[in-house]
Amino acid sequence: MVLASTPKVVLGCVAFVIFWVLAVFPSVPFLPVGRTAGSLLGAMLMVLFRVMTPEEAYAAIDLPILGLLFGTMVVSIFLERADMFQYLGSMLSWKSRGSKDLLFRVCLVSAVASALFTNDTTCVVLTEFILKVARQNNLPPQPFLLALASSSNIGSSATPIGNPQNLVIAVTSGISFGSFLFGIFPAMIVGVLTNVFILLCYFWKYLSVEKVRDQEAAAHELVVADDEVSSHRFTPARMSHASSVNGDADYMRSDSMTRAGVGDNLRSRSYNSEGDRDIQVAIRSLRASSMSQEMVEVSTVCDRGRDDGPRKVTRTTSHQRSVIIEDAPEKEAFPDKEKPQEEEEVKRKTWKVFVWKTAVYLTTLGMLIALLMGLNMSWSAITAALVLLALDFTDAQACLEKVSYSLLIFFCGMFITVDGFNRTGIPNALWELVEPHARIDSAKGIALLAVVILFLSNVASNVPTVLLLGTRVAASARAISPASEKKAWLILAFVSTVAGNLTLLGSAANLIVCEQARRAQFHGYNLTFWSHLRFGVPSTIIITAIGLLIVVSY
């Protein structure tokens, strides 16, 4: 392809560079507007500089990809509300046989979850839980955080709904969900097992250290209790106001209490009417709610003259607040005639929650079956999302507000910007230099193509890389045979996804794990760029090489 006119080439490159800088470094000092605004800015400049017309810009937006993204987001939100991720998290610590077994579980669970619910969502909801489990068992968090991030990226390569670049490849290539799955799934499984092996070799010494159980030292450390881990509620960042449906307590909890964090505190403030347990619970809730500088005095007044008399607990703080808790006799607090009504109400609400959760899981299963049957992926996901919204029997606005519309807008701007850059002719000119040496009919060509994909995925991000290389790699392979074209798309999908493990900046999932771990309260951990790089480089090279052998032989 001949290059466009010089002004169009120069201005198109300027617009694309601005988009690239803001996409890779969203908080640059001179323009800290973020990725979404950066993609819109790049798209606007492409039209403003007359690299493309407004009609061409609108035509560049791929609506099927946006529909598939929207549908999978809504389904993920309902699965989170139905405690799917809480059940996945429970699998990590259930009957664990040690640190190495826990590491294997983290890799396996995160890989499977990413293939079904996207890698970003998996990393958001599992990072804090994994940190708590590691701290509870006195284990170093680094190997488990690396296992989560790397396995999530590897696992997401298996399905078109695992990550955004796979969505683009599946829609653009027309490869069915089943063909995509069966083409990459074996490489994904071997990649996850290889990743476990590399992690064990790299951290064997740290994972083999026996836990020190010094009671005196443990008293001065912040250790996560068992009940805290088991009651951990997963809430993705983009679903920060989602309320999980978890039995009676959660079902009866109002949205305002959930958002304020009151719901979780109420569980630890439940008062009984039995002996000294009341005072202990009262003191514990008082400590949890008071500020660090408050002076707390607890005085207990018990009427010892009567065996059936009430118990009174008076609390006084520096803010002159007092709370008096009176435990009436059991007969007065819970009359016998009210017990059947309360039990019936609890059973009714528990059954309602069970039916709702079952409907969510069955709808999701139906979507996956439709995708495997080869039905239109976008409309299958949108249909599943609308069914879940209808089954919720509430105003859909609260749920739709949790959709990451910024990601959808980012994709719109990116489609326009990349299409405008393609119109300059520079990508085609560069590909013509590489294409004769990167054909997939030889081992040398496959290796060179993989290196190009790895490099561009970490420099320009994986989704723009797929948009720039996809049609060109497919056209080159089509000249060999139709089967080679499908193989080329699968190679692009696998390598561009695994390439995210090379550096900390190579994948959004890596950044999510890093930020979630750093901001975690009481048990935070700072995963540095270099600590990730030391593991990421050998892991990515080995897994890419092994995976290519399997994908090519498909």
From TrEMBL:
Membrane topology annotation: Multi-pass membrane protein
CDD domains documented for this protein: YbiR_permease
Cell location: Cell membrane
Any one Gene Ontology BP term: transmembrane transport
TM regions (residue ranges): 9-27, 63-82, 102-131, 181-204, 354-373, 407-426, 446-469, 489-513, 533-552
Protein name: Citrate transporter-like domain-containing protein
UniProt keywords, alphabetically: Cell membrane, Membrane, Transmembrane, Transmembrane helix, Transport
Positions with biased composition (Basic and acidic residues): 328-342
Transmembrane keyword on record: yes
Domain Citrate transporter-like: 24-499
GO CC annotations on file: plasma membrane
Region span, Disordered: 299-342
